[in-house]
Amino acid sequence: MSQTLSLDHYRLLGRSGLRVSPLSLGTMTFGEAWGWGADADEARRIFDAYADRGGNFIDTAVNYTNGGSERILGALLKHRRERFVLATKFTMARDPDNINAGGNHRLNLIRSVETSLRQLDTDRIDLLYLHAWDFTTSPEEVMRGLEHLVQSGKVLYLGICNTPAWRVAQLQTLADLRGWSPLVALQIEYSLVERSVEHELLPMARELGLGVLPWSPLGGGILTGKYSRADLSDDNAAEVSTSRKGVIASTGHLNARSLDIADAVGAVAEELGASRSQVALAWTLRNPAVVSPVMGARAAAGRGQLRCAGNRLERRTPGSAGSDQRAGADLSGAFHRPAHGAAAHLRHLQGAVTQLMDASPTDDPSAAMHCLTCNDLSPTTARPINPSRHRAFASPFCTALRPSTSSSSQNTMQHTITRSDQPSPSGSSALTSTAACVRL
């Protein structure tokens, strides 16, 4: 059965009782003070496109576009505030002449929250994030200050962004021991071009009950095909340093490796008849820790990314009607958790993205091959898993692609796989075999 993403297929946020949309509207682009944002009219069109489809999760920060983002949102939310879960952040400095205008200390915390309440024209903040750890303020001061705001009713729930896993765990433990309000959300960069968080932050979030909100799930536009190898030229660097592309380049992600990954995303998207954005988002949401990627747009034309959930892809298998016998997938099933549980959810996601990485018109999707380490899929036993796409989509923990120990002079790699539909001699449900993959 094909399923379609809807922004009103709400999900629980961490161990809170809040229900939020599977895509969050990021509003760092609301306001023109930074040189590449949307004006108030364009911001309204973007906001309405999201809200009209049931979206209810809004993300901003006290410093975005020098306060312009919150002021625009305040006007947009004026007569419909109760429909939305409103998240903002504090930490970043707003006054270069004031040494205490940034950081996580209580003075900046209280000032920032009061400023956000004025700019947003609201009486409460539904979710307040610590924007980044300042490596200065004590954990006790931070958590006690946040608890004070919760007790005052100005803040309802707490989250944290861009902070090492050991520090987040320390803060959460402190809150539990003292009976203070816990952290319920973790916002971190996560995409196919930034996967370092899989080592510690994502497992920690699942264990401690934090819902994960990935920012830049499209790699700053890299995964959409927006950039090419021409953008890697040194000749362009001076011209784009203050542009949006300059911001992306400054992260270090605009490199040849990322563009190779973007090419793999494009190939999968073409096979599925989907957009690159759909594939990249579906891959991000396949992680069970992820609740709601944060998506933004600078112009009304970018609203299509927020509507990607509405595009349904048909599944076709050999023997079905029509001349096109290639295996298809319902990509939109990746965007919400089916009622029958997490295991089914993961199967939807696998079918949405990884199952067709190496599909051909004659492949039988029922004969899936699983990488033992990272669950990469190859829908046929007739040929090995494609190493190029495996490198792009596999887990960083994957040790399956490794130098061959064979004495053969061929430049090959070994990929251990299991066939889940055949019993093994030992009676287990999987049969282990080995397929050779050409080294890139």
From TrEMBL:
Keywords: Oxidoreductase
Domain NADP-dependent oxidoreductase: 22-299
InterPro entries in the cross-refs: AKR_Detox_Biosynth (IPR050523), NAD(P)_OxRdtase_dom_sf (IPR036812), NADP_OxRdtase_dom (IPR023210)
GO cellular component, as recorded: cytosol
Record carries keyword Oxidoreductase: yes
Oxidoreductase among keywords: yes
A molecular function (GO) term: oxidoreductase activity
Extent of the signal sequence: none
Composition bias type Polar residues, residue spans: 402-440
Chain intervals for the UniProt region annotation (Disordered): 401-440
Highest taxon, organism lineage: Bacteria
The protein's name in its UniProt record: NADP-dependent oxidoreductase domain-containing protein
Protein source organism: Xanthomonas arboricola pv. corylina
